Automatic annotation (TrEMBL):
The keyword Transmembrane helix does not apply. Keywords: Acyltransferase, ATP-binding, Nucleotide-binding, Transferase. Residues 682-719 form the ATP-grasp domain. GO terms for molecular function: acyltransferase activity. Its EC number is 2.3.1.-. PROSITE patterns: ATP_GRASP, GNAT. CDD domains: NAT_SF (cd04301). It comes from Nocardiopsis codii. The lineage of its organism: Bacteria, Bacillati, Actinomycetota, Actinomycetes, Streptosporangiales. PANTHER family: COA BINDING DOMAIN CONTAINING PROTEIN, PEPTIDYL-LYSINE N-ACETYLTRANSFERASE PATZ. The keyword Transferase applies. Coiled coil: none annotated. This is GNAT family N-acetyltransferase. Residues 20-170 form the N-acetyltransferase domain.
Length: 906
């Protein structure tokens, strides 16, 4: 019997936005199972057991609750300590099991059956099951649809009045897409329940001015929330003129959202009362949680566990709050009295301290928000949840995120990549250089260097900016101007010196500026209008920068009217340095009936460099969005079964690391106990169509000569110690050895210099080419990651490498190669070459990267793969050095397997 599988426990979001807890069944669930069965309708019981079954016997209860977590497995879903659904499988053959589930009548239609099937399928695959069999009565259409819509390959037969469904539960593109779509709908709905409440209670509403509780209440009322607001105070009859109630349980009507502003030690009790009341969501503005230390962290975890168990999502704790400018709700459940007007920007901020300043800056620039969430310690609701919501929110066209930590980085990049194909995503991530997170955040620090995180953001299409000012600079273009169709920039102005600054800045940003059109200091509005008409009509102009800083006073707004009018009719973006103003000045705005700033408003920047940088962000984003999505090429020569057998053999011969293997930057750790043999590494690579050159270890000059004879001349003699190779640069190898005497001399030279630690080997020599390095492995933050760079001392010292998430598409592989600064060396003729036929075969290198990414994605036991060097020449990409380190595979990989909410303990 297997021990209790803790990693099968999960919090999940249901289709209506509520939550449930899922876990393996135990004998202690006997009473819960009896109560659950007693609540089932006769029809539901008949569908499950094919007969009336009004009561479970003690024998039945023992059989159902006692499982071995191997051949007999059952999972239960609970809400508020009540069991609401059960799914189980029983093996009937080595790779086949019967599966059945039942959902309490009152909770049917909430997606419990689908998520139960996802999780029981993952558990079954872990135990070697490949197929599920389900017998279903024909009239049980709901259960049949659950199986059919799971995305698995299914077969159906009919016999003796029962439909038998056979499902191949191996993940497919269709089943993964179905799971992701359900996840998106459920998490989006859970956020919508927070942002569109019909009623709000403020628990901890105070009669004392300037307290958190009274501030939250006043802001709700002052923001003209469209539903009832209920202050909760243990003694007061009214707070700020509104009738108060002793507890949330005393409120006579439904409460959708609770803003909690009581002491930290009282919060869990309040959450339990909210659960009894049927509250749908919580905003906890109280502090005193994870940011205060271990005791506060335990309190924070208990808060989230209690809320999720009752089906509630939590914003916070220690947060500024949430807001929705939609006139249907006009929700200001924040501690900020003034919110920006209605707009098309969705904003997520983890920092409560910065939140109010951020909102003020948005308003000062004349911009508007659709929704705003400040998550504070981010114990539950995160930026990932908001991206799920914003993907389908028609009111949000641009997404801004101020991030201090990433709870599930791999999920972040997956969601951002999907969202960015529709809407720009602009992110500031603080603390990048320190690789730390603020105290109290429910997330650990990232285990990749900051430049690697930037690479992964670029892969996902996220516009990463350096600070909040740049975030708003970029947002002004994205929210109020069309996207540029290309990099060519027209420049119009009345100051020759400022126009030259624009041109220089454009070149530095990788744009292609035209020569400026200088209208002179006396230029009129008509001059600007004609120049804009000409530039916007030109096919080789994709965007326009306008500089207007007249030397004389008074200044009329005639030029502003021209800019505004031309912008309204143009499908090309116009940005300006207008009087050195920042934001969207009134003269450059198009204003709606409700006073909101509309598209076509012209963003202005205090300096030409700021304007060009914002335009460059938009241009690079457009180029990313317009790229082909890439594909995962078919690689028919991959032998996964042989790879698994090879890995099992290698695991027996090596001691896998219990820790993550740091394989980036200067923190590489080589633990020989966790390394597999060169032979096993080559065998494992060959399973994925990667041929690594064999080498023969040698301990004497004569042994080296014998090895050279076996391999065939010419050969190389080199050191095989990774640490030594890094220290010694290119001096660890002797190449182009064509005679026995050459081999003896090379061996003795290297042995005399480095001694026995060199680990000298002899290897057949490859034709000259460009030496590169491919490294890949399972990263604790991002999952499977691949890095690429050139194999030379300079590249190592400058850490000139790029990173991408595995598995790579063909476009990802091409981007990865181009992303390193030394990439041009791969796209020209090598020294001494005379024709294009001798150019490095970059296509072969791209395929090699794809194969390596498939390998590390398939086997999380592979902690680190180091292919160094990979020589790229005209004939292909040749792996001359291959080493591999193993680790204990994690129970749950980041963003892999069935959908689940991030855990509350770390």
């Amino acid at each position: 019997m297997q021990s209790y599988p803790n990693h099968w426990e999960a919090d999940v979001v249901l289709t209506d936005g509520g939550t449930a807890h899922m876990r393996p069944i135990t004998p202690d669930d006997a009473d819960l199972l009896r109560e659950f069965h007693a609540r089932l309708s006769p029809e539901t019981i008949y569908y499950r057991f094919f007969a009336p079954y009004p009561k479970l016997s003690d024998r039945d209860v023992k059989r159902f609750t006692t499982v071995d977590y191997e051949d007999r497995v059952a999972l239960v879903a609970t809400i508020s300590d009540s069991l609401v659904a059960v799914v189980r499988y029983d093996k009937v053959a080595p790779e086949e099991a019967e599966v059945a589930f039942v959902v309490e009548d009152g909770h049917q239609g909430r997606g419990l059956a689908s998520v139960l099937l996802e999780h029981i399928g993952a558990a079954a695959r872990e135990r070697g099951v490949r197929r599920f069999i389900a017998d279903v009565l024909p009239e049980n259409r709901r259960m049949i649809n659950v199986f059919r819509e799971a995305g698995y390959t299914a077969q159906q037969t009919f016999d003796e009045g029962v439909i038998r469904l056979t499902l191949d539960i191996q993940p497919t593109d269709d089943s993964t897409e179905v799971m992701r779509a359900r996840e998106q709908r459920a998490e989006s709905r859970s956020i919508a329940r927070l942002l569109f409440p019909n009623s709000v209670a403020v628990i901890g509403a105070s009669r004392t001015a300037h307290t958190i509780g009274q501030t939250a209440l006043r802001n709700l009322l002052g923001g003209e929330f469209q539903g009832p607001v209920y202050p909760v105070h243990p003694e007061a009859k009214a707070v700020v003129g509104v009738r108060a109630y002793p507890s949330v349980l005393d409120i006579p009507d439904q409460v959708d959202l609770a803003v909690v502003a009581v002491r930290a030690d009282m919060v869990v009790d309040v959450v339990e009362q909210c659960a009894d009341k049927g509250v749908l969501g919580l905003v906890v503005v109280s502090s005193g949680f994870g940011e205060t230390g271990p005791e506060g962290r335990e309190r924070q975890d208990e808060l989230v566990r209690t809320a999720r168990a009752a089906g509630m999502r939590v914003v916070g704790p220690n947060c500024l709050g949430i807001a929705n400018s939609d006139p249907r709700v006009s929700l200001n459940a924040t501690l900020s009295p003034d919110l920006p007007p209605v707009g098309s920007i969705g904003f997520f901020s983890q920092s409560g301290a910065l939140g109010r300043a951020i909102l003020q800056r948005v308003a000062e620039r004349g911009m508007g928000l659709s929704t705003f969430v400040s998550a504070g310690n981010r114990a539950d609701v995160s930026g990932n949840d908001l991206m799920q919501y914003w993907q389908e929110d028609p009111a949000t066209e641009v997404v801004l995120q101020y991030l201090e930590s990433l709870g599930n980085p791999r999920k972040f990049t997956r969601l951002a990549r999907r969202l960015a194909k529709q809407k720009p995503v602009v992110a500031v991530r603080s603390g990048g250089s320190a690789q730390t997170t603020p105290t109290g955040h429910a997330a650990g620090g990232l285990s990749l260097p900051d430049y690697a995180v930037t690479s992964l953001f670029q892969q996902a299409g996220v516009v990463r900016v350096d600070d909040i000012t740049q975030m708003f600079d970029a947002a002004q273009v994205f929210a109020y101007q069309p996207l540029p169709k290309g990099p060519r920039v027209g420049i119009i102005g009345n100051s020759d010196s400022l126009e030259l600054l624009v041109k220089d800045a454009a070149v530095r940003q990788g744009l292609k500026p035209h020569d400026p059109v200088n209208l002179g200091p006396q230029a009129t509005a008509e001059d600007f209008d004609l120049a804009l008409e000409t530039a916007l009509a030109a096919e080789d102009v994709h965007s326009v920068v306008v500089v207007f800083i007249p030397a004389l006073h008074p200044i009329s707004d005639d030029v502003a009217r021209v800019l505004r009018a031309r912008s309204l009719d143009s499908d090309k973006p116009i940005v300006a340095t207008y009087l050195g103003r920042q934001g969207l000045p009134e003269e450059l705005r198009h204003v709606g009936d409700s006073g909101e700033t509309l598209r076509g408003s012209v963003p202005s920047y205090p300096s030409p460099e700021d304007a060009v940088r914002a335009l460059a962000y938009a241009t690079r984003y457009t180029q990313w969005r317009n790229r082909k999505p890439g594909r995962h090429p078919e690689l028919p020569d991959i032998d996964g079964a042989r790879a698994r057998a090879t890995l099992v053999r290698a695991l027996r011969n090596a001691k896998p690391s219990a820790d993550d293997i740091a394989w980036f930057g200067g923190e590489r750790r080589y633990d020989e106990e966790t390394a597999i043999s060169s032979e096993d590494a080559r065998d494992l690579l060959s399973c994925y169509g990667i041929a690594a050159y064999p080498d023969i270890p040698v301990s004497s000059a004569e042994g080296a000569v014998v090895a050279a004879g076996e391999l065939g001349y010419p050969v190389v003699v080199k050191a095989d110690s990774p640490d030594l190779r890094v220290r010694a640069g290119g001096t660890f190898v002797r190449a182009d050895l064509r005679t026995p005497e050459d081999v003896r001399s090379a061996f003795l030279s290297l042995h005399d210099r480095f001694g026995a630690e060199a680990g000298l080997v002899v290897q057949r020599m490859a034709a000259p080419g460009v030496p590169t390095v491919i490294r890949a492995g399972d990263n604790q933050s991002f999952g499977s990651v691949v890095s690429f760079g050139l194999a030379d001392v300079t590249a190592e010292l400058l850490d000139d490498r790029a990173f991408r998430l595995a598995p790579l598409t063909d476009m990802d592989a091409a981007d990865l190669i181009h992303a390193v600064r030394a990439a041009p060396l791969l796209f020209g003729l090598p020294a001494g070459a005379t024709s294009l036929a001798e150019q490095p075969n970059v296509e072969a290198l791209e395929e090699l990267l794809i194969r390596v990414s498939r390998l590390v994605e398939a086997f999380p036991e592979i902690g680190y793969v180091d292919l160094d060097p990979v020589l790229v020449n005209a004939t292909g990409a040749h792996v001359l050095g291959a080493r591999m380190w193993l680790r204990e595979a994690p129970d749950v990989r980041p963003d892999a397997g069935p959908r689940r909410l991030r855990g509350v303990t770390f």
